[in-house]
Amino acid sequence: MATLSLYGTDEIWSPCLKKKRILSGIQPSGNLHIGNYFGMMKPMIDLQADNELFCFLPNYHALTSQTDGEVLAQNTVEAAADFLSLGMDPEKSVFWVQSDVPEVAELTWVLNNVTSVGMLERATSYKDKVSRGMTAHHGLFSYPVLMTADILLYGTDVVPVGKDQKQHLEMARDIATKFNTLYGETFVVPEPLIAESTGLIPGIDGQKMSKSYNNTLEIFGGKDDLAEKVMSIVTDNTPPDEPKDTKNNALFMIYSLFLEESGRSSLEARFHSPGLKYSDVKKELVEVIWDFFAPYREMRGGLYGDSETVIKILKQGAEKARAAAESYLEAIRKKTGLKYWNR
Questions:
Q1: Which domains occur in the chain, in start order?
Q2: Set 92, 208, 320, 335: catalytic member
Q3: Which of 129, 166, 178, 339 is catalytic?
Q4: Is 208 a catalytic residue?
Q5: pTM (2 d.p.)
Q6: Residue 211 falls in the annotated catalytic set
Q7: At 125, is the pLDDT very low, low, confident or very high (cuts 50, 70, 90)?
Q8: Which 3-state string (H, E, C) describes 141-179?
């Protein structure tokens, strides 16, 4: 099993993360925040250096919760522009929108026929979402099968997964194995890429940073809005002349995202020394965040501010993805009997 370091760590990539085909995606669900960036996007983008990264925007999956077509279309283009601005290189990676490769829908139907209802009923993610009020429809129920098709269609070796998606990857492995048993070796059985650190990235209220909690720090927002949110980061009431605890301290944890090991050690020493004022640290953090993302904002407002440029890149990526998928789908059609001519 491969491992991936998350934010705030300096571990060296595992040797198994070399020259592998890695697939990942993030749903186009609105403005990106620093939790998205440090928790998933940056580690994923970094994998471009030594691996073959396949990255897509799963807009089919987004239909399980988004019913406004105009919003989904706009979010898709904006999410792509954000990704490109933050370092996704379409020359090094394959970057596309899920629905631009319709073959994934065909494979999903094939895989439905080797997927047991019992396995889908055991999906904890489905149960959790329904318990939180989401409509219990078939798209949500069969979500793991579409995710499996996304993975298997491109011969994926490794899939980065968080704790909430780990079970889905295990399902994908089971489905691939079942198909290979029935029809002969066809699919690569993917390995999970699990984060070594399981710590959450806190929002301004100390909970996990999430749009649903309205506690995020957006990457491409205005500076005044950023400052207002940073200054509202929850802190304890320790007086300035007393040492501050860094454990579960949202301000310390967020600031640490932007520091190397030596910088984190220095910040920790400041927190543990009398005289530190939280307000001063928050003002520093505003400038740190603003400066860190400055080159990305320039890219976002320049080259990738043109939607036609972004769409062209996505269409070119879809062509590459379809080319990678074709050999697998052709073998599947023959083995299942869907291709009934020239056998």
A1: 2-200+306-336 (3.40.50.620), 211-298 (1.10.240.10)
A2: 208
A3: 129
A4: yes
A5: 0.85
A6: yes
A7: confident
A8: HCHHHHHHHHHHCCCCCEEEECCCCHHHHHHHHHHHHHH
